């Protein structure tokens, strides 16, 4: 694994009232011991069996979870196949209790298959878990997800929301890169991904520097940490993160929220539309549209762009709100449906 500059650490944060300056940070932070008093963490400290028993208390069994499964040869890496056309894993719908029992079965196996339940909504599948394992986000209402599995390697990827990830069992290694390292991480397809987000094609355990020479520059900007049970890491929006589960049984609980209103669309949809409609224009036309995007989006100033239009008539050139977004979405869907 690459040697990374340590992520800045903070200790003594009160879990019941996370400070706003932390939740708005644009830099990553490690919060040692943030959730050490969670009943889930306490159970995991006793044994894997105790942790599994604790999780089973909340499993209503009403629907299966989606488990990512890969053979031992994958060495826990969730990735593509050799030609990037398919993947090195399969997904199966399995009752959570069966997943947990199977993880316990393979706990002592030195080369087990990968078993990984990813991004599963806590309130849907483990109702009551959040009430016993609390964090205070103030007026934010983040989406809470749980990740359960054995040793795993998740390639570097970005998420649009801010992310607070808490280690509830096992240990995690986190390697982060600022958003500016996009060009140096050799990102794979945007529309054919292992789990919804485009990922780096670099194997962090065995980087091929001949194939990926700019990765060496990315490493100069890497930040990392190893997290123990009870520790957490804050990952700001769009920071690249490579996540590893280091033990035979690992549980992570994470919280996602955006700084923008819920009615705003994801910028990834805008990127896809721009690729579809702008990227392959003749160079002179593309340069014109670069200026258009700068004027209306990236350098937007309402007085400069729309000051000559009466405020009630500015429509999309005025500040966005839920009604305007609904109108624009309907207009866009109508134009795309042809």
Could you characterize the architecture of this molecule?
This protein is α+β, with helices and mostly antiparallel strands and 338 residues long. It folds into 2 domains: 5-257, Sandwich (Jelly Rolls); 267-336, no CATH class. 27% of the residues lie in helices and 23% in strands. Strands 2-3-12-9-14-7-6-4-5 form a 9-stranded mixed sheet. A 5-stranded mixed sheet has the order 1-11-10-13-8. It is globular, with a radius of gyration of 22 Å. 32% of the residues are buried. The model has no long low-confidence stretch (mean pLDDT 96). This is Cupin-like domain-containing protein. InterPro entries: Cupin_8, JmjC_dom, RmlC-like_jellyroll. It holds the Pfam family Cupin_8. Residues 115-272 form the JmjC domain.
List keywords for this structure.
27% helix; globular; Jelly Rolls; 11 helices; 9-stranded mixed sheet; Cupin-like domain-containing protein; 5-stranded mixed sheet; alpha+beta; 2 domains; 338 residues; single chain
| Total number of distinct structural domains | 2
- The helix/strand series, from N terminus to C terminus, equals EEHEHHEEHEHHEEEEHEEEEHHHH
CATH architecture assignment of the largest domain: Sandwich
Count the E strands: 14
Inertia-based shape: globular
Sequence of strands across the biggest β-sheet: 2-3-12-9-14-7-6-4-5
Rg, alpha carbons? 22 Å
Strand residue percentage: 15-25%
Distance between the termini: 49 Å
Low-confidence stretches: none
Mean pLDDT: 96
Q: State the share of residues found in helices, binned by percent.
A: 25-40%
Instruction: Profile the largest sheet.
Output: 9 strands, mixed
**What would CATH call the class of the largest domain?**
Mainly Beta
Q: Please, how many helices?
A: 11
CATH homologous superfamily of the largest domain?
Answer: Cupin
Query: What structural class should be given to the helix and strand makeup?
Result: alpha+beta
Write down the CATH topology of the largest domain.
Jelly Rolls
């Amino acid at each position: 694994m690459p040697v990374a500059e340590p992520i800045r650490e903070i200790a003594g944060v009160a879990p019941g009232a996370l400070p706003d300056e932390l939740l708005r940070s644009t830099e990553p932070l490690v919060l040692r011991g943030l959730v050490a008093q969670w009943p889930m963490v306490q159970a995991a400290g006793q044994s894997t069996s105790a942790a599994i028993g604790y999780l089973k208390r909340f499993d209503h069994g009403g629907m299966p979870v989606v488990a990512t499964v890969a053979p031992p040869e994958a060495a826990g890496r969730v990735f593509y196949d050799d030609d990037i056309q398919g993947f090195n894993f399969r997904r199966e719908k399995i009752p959570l209790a069966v997943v947990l029992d199977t993880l316990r079965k393979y706990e002592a196996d030195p080369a087990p298959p990968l078993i990984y339940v990813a991004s599963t909504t806590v309130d849907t599948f483990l109702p009551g878990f959040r009430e016993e394992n609390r964090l205070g986000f103030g007026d934010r209402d983040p989406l809470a997800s749980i990740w359960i599995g054995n040793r795993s390697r998740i390639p570097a990827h970005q998420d649009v929301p801010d992310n607070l990830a808490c280690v509830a069992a096992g240990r995690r290694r986190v390697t982060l890169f600022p958003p500016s390292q996009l060009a140096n991480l050799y990102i794979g397809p945007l529309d054919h991904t292992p789990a919804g987000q485009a990922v780096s094609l670099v194997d962090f355990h065995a980087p091929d520097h001949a194939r990926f020479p700019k990765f060496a520059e990315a490493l100069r900007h890497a930040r990392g940490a190893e997290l123990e049970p009870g520790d957490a890491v804050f990952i700001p929006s769009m920071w690249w993160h490579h996540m590893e589960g280091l033990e035979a049984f690992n549980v992570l609980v994470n919280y996602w929220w955006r700084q923008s209103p819920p009615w705003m669309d994801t910028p990834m949809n805008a990127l896809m539309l721009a690729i579809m409609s702008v990227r392959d224009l003749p160079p002179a036309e593309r340069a014109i549209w670069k200026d258009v995007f700068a004027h209306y989006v990236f350098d937007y100033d309402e007085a400069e762009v729309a000051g000559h239009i009466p405020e009630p008539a500015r429509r999309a050139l005025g500040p966005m709100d839920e009604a305007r977004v609904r109108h624009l979405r309907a207009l866009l869907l109508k134009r795309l449906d042809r």
